[in-house]
Amino acid sequence: MAFSSNPLSLSVPDPAFESWLRDSGYLELLDHRTSAAAAAVAASTSASSSSSSAAAPSSASDDVVSSITGGFFASLLSRIVTVSSLLTINPFSKLSADDFSGDTPPWTTGFFGTCDSYSFPSSSQQARMRVHENIKRFARNYATLFIVFFACALYQMPLALVGLLASLALWELFKYCSDRWKFDRHPSVRKLCIGIGQCATAVLLTFLNVQMALFSALAVSYSVMILHAGFRKLTPSKKPSRGR
């Protein structure tokens, strides 16, 4: 049945609609019911398989075993596809600067949670919803983890640490010289010095493996972020108290 267009209908922007879903708690409810429905389907399938295997005669036992094996491999393939779909998700598509302006969620009760706070996503759609929402909620936690991983990478690669410190010292020297000799009055000289500083910084970062430390920290933090956000259940977020 087709509905005629209503000139009085209002279109709600996606960010506003998602904010309403988040504040009203429907995202957590949707995630919980999706997991519960997938668990119920899996339980009914296993129950029907066990009942059929118990009622089947010995001549049909091979067919029952093959059907159970096929169901196991189908479930395994479905989970592999779901995990692989995490690699195709753009986790930063709905991230905004406002997500970094709030308070950092507590690490124990908020970020890590308990064993019951994690479950395997039943579908790629549920994994996508979890990744987008959890990254918005724990953006400051993931940023802190990246800093920790980058510090560990610099500790394991002393030359990279030397290159990073040398680059910072180079630009501090440029700032000191600019303030002392008033490069602002000579734009051409300032532009030339900036170009020389950029080339020197690129040489330092390349030959002292700073980019390798940065790449390793990005790879580890990205993997941890995707896996944590995909397997972390959506829990009700605390709403700020409003005065009457």
UniProtKB/TrEMBL annotation:
It comes from the Eukaryota. It is a multi-pass membrane protein. GO terms for cellular component: endoplasmic reticulum; Golgi apparatus; membrane. Keywords: Membrane, Transmembrane, Transmembrane helix, Transport. It is found in: Endomembrane system; Membrane. The chain crosses the membrane at residues 142-171, 214-231. GO terms for biological process: vesicle-mediated transport. The keyword Plastid does not apply. Belongs to the PRA1 family. May be involved in both secretory and endocytic intracellular trafficking in the endosomal/prevacuolar compartments. This is PRA1 family protein.
